[in-house]
Each structure stands twice: as structure tokens, then as C-alpha cells.
């Protein structure tokens, strides 16, 4: 599978929701899509799912434009924080309906997940709590086994144990049935271990797209005597800084060579890795 | 891998859902009719037949399920179905409902007639076609909006079913057209489409009246010169144009989330 965006723009009236988005996702991996509120995550994902067309530019899935393409649209599942307040069907009816339209749908797996999330099989979905409705979205997304599966902040309202079940099942099923999974999220620190690659979107543009290990290797926090820290980081991209008396701590973004690391340690500086959560905050903060 | 056609699934699913609703509607109207029969029987009045009751209320029912039709769009696109497959599926299902509803109605109505004849209770003669044509333009317009051409099933039951099906179908289509325009545009444009839809409905009634050789009220009455065959073609054209408008509105529509 391959998903490719080229110079995608989306305008609502005069405002740009997406300014100039280009990226390529190739390979059955889990992609984390991070961005602050209003960054354009849902706009981008809704174009991928053929919910709308871009104002300009193209998105292709396996080389084909998905919009109104029956073959491609069947292979893309988009789960989001949907409003079920008028849904009087129960879980089982709902899943049976979806099964008719999703060629890879696994009914047994869906029923296993219904038990796993302890959802009431007979209760109308509109009477479910927000968290239970989110669990239903997770079940529909996982059991559809669509080659491109998109979860847009699908965990909203789910309690911590339910989210944990989601993450475990996601990893386990991805192991057995690899596909392109895109997880858009705010809960960066909780979900970072799930991602193979990370894309950060900010103000309608792609800020970065890296494999997670490469990305984390680029960040480091250097702590020590303020003068030494200043010397060491003066030619680096600084994304955060804290001072306490004569001590200073600077977070940098950019690769450090082995020689640089050694030199830092020899001069008494402390080098600590940076979490994805911190990188996300500082990189998007700086841009704003 | 061969791609299986999706619109027949949509058509079947939407037909079954709307058939269940229709069953509920016909059932409730049947119960109401029984109560009306009992009251009329006790008071010794003539009773309104089931066919006539559905002739009036069925229009509103079809308008409502037509309005609801657009809500299936988000559901289907959300499950990887194209707008085109949704459109064709909905279109086929709506024809199915417009045909099955009058058939059920005439079956129930015939049974009712049979029972009433056994009990020697007479039914009211429907006078809906005897519209009052005078110089009151407002009155004419109101009449032409609310009253559809009527054929008595006792005169010609095939014609009665066909005319009822046409009346019902236009109501479904204008419901679907109006809700599609509200989904696609803002409220002002939606109101504009309500006016267009009302005109389509009045034009269809006028043409149907001409083809059935009934009195012709309303602001399309100048079309009276048309031969009845042409008028009938005109009715079909209105249906085609309405369906085409709905397709144009929904062809590339953005799905609300």
C-alpha cells in the first residue's frame, strides 16, 4: 500500500485549513499524526477518506485518486469522534451492517472485541456513554481490517483501561494483519510507543515526517554550567531553554555526531534523550 | 480482484429500512381508521375509506422519509460507499417504496370495503378533485399546493394505484431534494430549493390533471392546452429533472462530520 499527497491545499472560504501538504506513506506501518488543535489533522484525514475533495493538489492511494473511486474507498476506513445520539441500533446490528460494506471485515474478531470492551450487545448505541461509543469506533476500525485504517482521536472519552485495551489490540492485530494505520492524537506521551513513523502537522503544513527512532535521536537536552551549555549549543537549533542559577538546560533539535557527544560528556555536560511529547510541544510551540 | 457492485446492497438495505417504517405508518393509519370507522358507525355517518386516508397522509409521510434520505449519505460514505452508489441505491429504493405503499394501501382498502359491505356501511365519496376555480389567485395557489389529483380505486384500481404512486413519489423526491440542498448549502439556498420543489410539485399536479382531464387550478393552468399524452410526458420529465438536481447536489458533496 502507498498513500501519497502532493501539494494538497484545502480552503474554507478565504481560510486555508491545509496550505501545502506533501508526503508519502509506504509500507504497512503505524503512522502517528500529531498536531495542535486546528492544525489541519481532521481536514487532511477527511480528504484521505474521500469525505471531501482538496481545493488543489492530489492525494493518491496505490496510485489512484480515492474520491468517488469505489475500489479505493472500500479500502479506507475512517473512524472519528462520531455523534451517535440518534443511533437506535445495537452494537451487533451495527456491526452486521458494516460487514456488508467492508470486504475484509472479521465478524468473530469484532465479537471478541465487543466482549473485550465489555459493550452491552442489546443496548441502543445512543444510550452508550461517550467512552463506550469510542470503543465501538475502535472495534469497527480494527475489525474492518481495511488496508488503510484511520483513527482520528478515536479514544475520546475512553477511560485508561479501555485505552490500554485499544493499544494492545491494535499492536496485536497489526502484527497479524499488517496495514497502514494512521493514528491522529493529542495523547503523545501515552501513544508514542505505538508509532513506526511520525508526522507533525502545524498550521496546515507538514512540519516533519520521520521514523520515530530517527526523530528521537535528533532531540537532546544538554544540562550543565550555563557558559558551557551556551558554547555547546550556540550553533544548534534550540527548541527550549531553562535556567536555574548558574545551571542551564537547553533542548536542541538536530543530529549530534559521536564526537560531539563525547566532547559534551568530557566537558562535564549532561546529555539526556528527549521524549516525543517534549519534541512535539516545543517544535509546534516554536512555530506558533 | 473483481469489484462487486455496491449499489444493489444500498438499494436493498434502504428499501428494507424504509419498508419497515412504511409498515409502521400504514399500521398506525389503519388503527386510526378503525377508530374513525367505529365513531362514524356509532354516529351513523358515512365513513372515510382507508385509501382516501392514505391518499392525504401518505404525501406527508413520503415527504418526511424523503427528507431523511440524505442522512444515509454520511453513513454510506463513512463505510467506503461512493456518493454515486448511495444515489443509485437510494433512487431504486425510493421507487420501490412509492410502488409498494399504494399496493399495500389498495389491499387493505379492499379488505376494508369487503367488511363494510358485509356490515352495510357506506363510504364517503371523495370529492377532492372538485376544486373551486375562481378569481382568487391565493386560494387557487393554496389548493394547487395541497391537493393532488385523485382517481377513485373503484373506478379504475390500476389507475388509482398509479396516480397515488406518482403523487407519493414526487413528495419523496422533493423531500430528498430539499434536504440535499440544506446539506450542501446554507439555509437561504435551502429555502430557495423549497420554492423550486413546491413549483415542481404544482407543475406535476397540473400536468397530471391535464392528462386525467380534471379541472386545472393554480398558476400553471395556462398549460391546459397541452394534449394529455404530452402532459404525461411532462410529469415524467419533472421526475427526471428533480432526480438530476439531487444527483448534481450530491455528486461531489462534502460529508459532514
From TrEMBL, chain A:
Keyword Lipoprotein: no
Positions of transmembrane segments: none
Keywords: ATP-binding, Nucleotide-binding, Transport
Any one GO molecular function term: ATP binding
InterPro entries: AAA+_ATPase, ABC_transporter-like_ATP-bd, ABC_Transporter_VariousFunc, P-loop_NTPase
Record-annotated ABC transporter domain positions: 3-228
Cross-referenced CDD domains: ABC_DR_subfamily_A
Protein name: ABC transporter ATP-binding protein
Organism of derivation: Mesobacillus maritimus
UniProtKB/TrEMBL annotation, chain B:
Membrane keyword on record: yes
Keywords, ordered alphabetically: Membrane, Transmembrane, Transmembrane helix
TM helices/strands, residue ranges: 12-39, 51-74, 86-108, 157-178, 185-203, 225-249
Superkingdom assignment: Bacteria
Protein name as catalogued: Uncharacterized protein
Organism: Mesobacillus maritimus
Amino acid at each position: 500500500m502507498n498513500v501519497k499527497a502532493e501539494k494538497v491545499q484545502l480552503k474554507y472560504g478565504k481560510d486555508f485549513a491545509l496550505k501545502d501538504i506533501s508526503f508519502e506513506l509506504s509500507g504497512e506501518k503505524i503512522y502517528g499524526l500529531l498536531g495542535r488543535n486546528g492544525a489541519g489533522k481532521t481536514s487532511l484525514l477527511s480528504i484521505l477518506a474521500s469525505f471531501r475533495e482538496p481545493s488543489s493538489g492530489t492525494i493518491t492511494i496505490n496510485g489512484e485518486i480515492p474520491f468517488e473511486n469505489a475500489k479505493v474507498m472500500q479500502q479506507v476506513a475512517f473512524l472519528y469522534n462520531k455523534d451517535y445520539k440518534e443511533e437506535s441500533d445495537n452494537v451487533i446490528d451495527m456491526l452486521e451492517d458494516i460487514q456488508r460494506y467492508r470486504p475484509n471485515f472479521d465478524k468473530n474478531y469484532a465479537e471478541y472485541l465487543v466482549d473485550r470492551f465489555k459493550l452491552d450487545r442489546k443496548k441502543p448505541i445512543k444510550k452508550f456513554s461517550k467512552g463506550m461509543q469510542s470503543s465501538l469506533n475502535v472495534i469497527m476500525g480494527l475489525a474492518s481490517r481495511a488496508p488503510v485504517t484511520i483513527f482520528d482521536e478515536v479514544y475520546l472519552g475512553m477511560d485508561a483501561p479501555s485505552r490500554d485495551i485499544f493499544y494492545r489490540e491494535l499492536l496485536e492485530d497489526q502484527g497479524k494483519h499488517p496495514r497502514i494505520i494512521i493514528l491522529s492524537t493529542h495523547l503523545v506521551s501515552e501513544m508514542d510507543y505505538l508509532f513506526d513513523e511520525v508526522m507533525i502537522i502545524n498550521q496546515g503544513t507538514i512540519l516533519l515526517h520521520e521514523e520515530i527512532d530517527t526523530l528521537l535521536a535528533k532531540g537532546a537536552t544538554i544540562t550543565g554550567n550555563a557558559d558551557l551549555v551556551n558554547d555547546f549549543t550556540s550553533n544548534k537549533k534550540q527548541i527550549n531553554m531553562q535556567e536555574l542559577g548558574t545551571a542551564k538546560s537547553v533542548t536542541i533539535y538536530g543530529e549530534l555526531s559521536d564526537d560531539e557527544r563525547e566532547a559534551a560528556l568530557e566537558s562535564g555536560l549532561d546529555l539526556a534523550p528527549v521524549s516525543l511529547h517534549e519534541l512535539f510541544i516545543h517544535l509546534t510551540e516554536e512555530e506558533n | 480482484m473483481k469489484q462487486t457492485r455496491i449499489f444493489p446492497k444500498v438499494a436493498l438495505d434502504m428499501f428494507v429500512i424504509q419498508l419497515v417504517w412504511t409498515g409502521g405508518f400504514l399500521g398506525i393509519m389503519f388503527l386510526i381508521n378503525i377508530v374513525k370507522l367505529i365513531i362514524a358507525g356509532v354516529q351513523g355517518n358515512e365513513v372515510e375509506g382507508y385509501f382516501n386516508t392514505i391518499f392525504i397522509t401518505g404525501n406527508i409521510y413520503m415527504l418526511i422519509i424523503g427528507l431523511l434520505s440524505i442522512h444515509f449519505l454520511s453513513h454510506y460514505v463513512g463505510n467506503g460507499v461512493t456518493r454515486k452508489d448511495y444515489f443509485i441505491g437510494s433512487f431504486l429504493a425510493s421507487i420501490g417504496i412509492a410502488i409498494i405503499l399504494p399496493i399495500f394501501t389498495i389491499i387493505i382498502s379492499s379488505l376494508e370495503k369487503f367488511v363494510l359491505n358485509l356490515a352495510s356501511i357506506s363510504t364517503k365519496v371523495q370529492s377532492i378533485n372538485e376544486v373551486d376555480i375562481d378569481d382568487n389567485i391565493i386560494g387557487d395557489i393554496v389548493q394547487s399546493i395541497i391537493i393532488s389529483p385523485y382517481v377513485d380505486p373503484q373506478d379504475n384500481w390500476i389507475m388509482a394505484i398509479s396516480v397515488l404512486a406518482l403523487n407519493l413519489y414526487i413528495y419523496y423526491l422533493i423531500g430528498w431534494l430539499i434536504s440535499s440542498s440544506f446539506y450542501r448549502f446554507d439555509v437561504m439556498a435551502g429555502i430557495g430549493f423549497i420554492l423550486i420543489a413546491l413549483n415542481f410539485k404544482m407543475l406535476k399536479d397540473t400536468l397530471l390533471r391535464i392528462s386525467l382531464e380534471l379541472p386545472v387550478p393554480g398558476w400553471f393552468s395556462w398549460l391546459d392546452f397541452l394534449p394529455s399524452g404530452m402532459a404525461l410526458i411532462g410529469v415524467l420529465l419533472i421526475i427526471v429533472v428533480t432526480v438530476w438536481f439531487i444527483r448534481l447536489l450530491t455528486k461531489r458533496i462534502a460529508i459532514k462530520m
